[in-house]
Design goal:
The structure holds two protein chains of two kinds. Chain A is mainly alpha-helical. Chain A is 57% helix and 0% strand. Chain B has a seven-stranded mixed beta sheet with strand order 1-2-3-4-5-7-10, sandwiched between helices. Chain B has a three-stranded mixed beta sheet with strand order 6-8-9. Chain B has a single domain, classed as 2-enoyl-CoA Hydratase, Chain A, domain 1 (Alpha-Beta Complex). Classes of the chains: A mainly alpha, B alpha/beta.
């Protein structure tokens, strides 16, 4: 699902992920598997989750990440809490 | 022993503060060796306490304070032993870890858990025995045991009930989700939030403040406000052992141990 609000949220997620995991922003795409693209494990995924919660000032239960591996779906989950 | 350097932890006394550092890779998983070294620590406390007013527990591992029980060791031992021997082994381990946790809980010194990153399961339970929890911004707290068909077994439920509202305890236990540090402070679990990587520094500053006060008064106040729920703690061991004997637990442990995917710490 896409909308201007979700696209904006998606953009912020991609910027934050690129900055924190030191990956060039242009290498990240909305439909990428973030575990593979960022080369992260579950501990680092929790780290990313914490940073996203702080950035968006939301609480995002980690079970919301079940079955979520692409940035766009993550953006939708975050948008639902804003 | 005023200083000790072990394989999983070390301690030393600095300016009247006993600093106990957990340093087992990858994330201070609590297995039999950690238990032995914690028992050594507890046995040393009467001597250490003579020269100290506070204890700080912290981790030197990047991933976090502690990911909890060493599930690989638990699973592998279970596979090597018969069911009954494995269950006896589990009960014995729990009774010993409870003795350690109860001893730290009752220490006459003021105890501070300086935590960061993953503070899960048995690691969360170790933080809960301390009087004060200081957490850095990246800390996450979790009781993931239900994911394995178990409940927390190191005394976490009675201690969480002692400290927090029952609704929060139910949320943590029944969803198996992790809380970030803001939520943890909102519900009264965390006393102070430190910048990323700075929980030890903040703990040292807090300990310095604590050191200004009369030890005997502080110990009496602590004993008054911090009852130890011994009956519930014993009951927790019984419930854990009843659950452990079920096939679902072996299946859950096997899945965790054999998981090569990126998501073992996610629910």
């Amino acid at each position: 699902m896409s909308s201007p609000a979700v696209d904006h949220t998606l953009d912020e997620i991609l910027n934050l992920a690129a900055s924190h995991f030191k990956v060039p922003r242009e290498k990240l795409n909305a439909d990428d598997d973030f575990f593979k693209t960022l080369g992260i494990d579950s501990l680092q995924a929790l780290d990313l989750l914490t940073r996203l919660e702080q950035h968006f000032r939301i609480e995002l239960p980690d079970y919301e990440l079940q079955g979520v591996s692409d940035f766009r779906t993550l953006a939708n989950r975050i948008q639902a809490r804003l | 022993m005023n200083t000790f350097k072990g394989e999983t932890l070390s301690w030393q006394t600095v300016n009247g503060v006993i600093e106990l550092a957990l340093h087992r890779e990858t994330c201070n998983e609590i297995g039999s060796l950690t238990l032995v070294e914690l028992e050594k620590f507890v046995a040393s406390v009467p001597e250490l306490a003579a020269e100290a007013h506070s204890l700080i527990l912290y981790s030197t591992q990047k991933a976090g304070f502690s990911a909890g029980a060493d599930l690989r060791e638990l699973f592998e031992r279970g596979q090597r032993m018969g069911k009954e021997a494995a269950l006896r082994g589990v009960r014995e381990f729990l009774e010993r870890i409870h003795a350690v946790m109860n001893a730290i809980d009752a220490f006459p010194l003021t105890t501070i858990a300086a935590v960061h990153g993953v503070t899960f399961g048995g690691g969360f339970e170790l933080a809960l025995v301390c009087d004060i929890i200081i957490a850095d911004r990246m800390t996450r707290f979790c009781f993931p045991e239900l994911r394995l068909g178990l409940i927390p077994g190191f005394g976490g439920i009675p201690r969480l009930k002692r400290d927090l509202g029952n609704a929060v305890v139910r949320d943590l236990l029944l969803t198996g989700r992790s809380f970030n540090v803001m939520k943890a402070q909102q519900v009264g679990l965390v006393s102070q939030i430190a910048a990323e990587g700075e929980s030890l520094q903040v703990a040292r500053s807090t300990a310095s403040q604590i050191g200004k006060f009369d030890r005997q008064t502080a110990a009496a106040a602590k004993e008054f406000v911090k009852p130890i729920p011994y009956a519930e703690l014993k009951r927790e061991i019984d419930i854990f052992c009843d659950l452990f004997s079920r096939p679902a637990v072996e299946k859950g442990l096997r899945q965790f141990v054999e998981n090569e995917g990126p998501q073992p710490y996610l629910p």
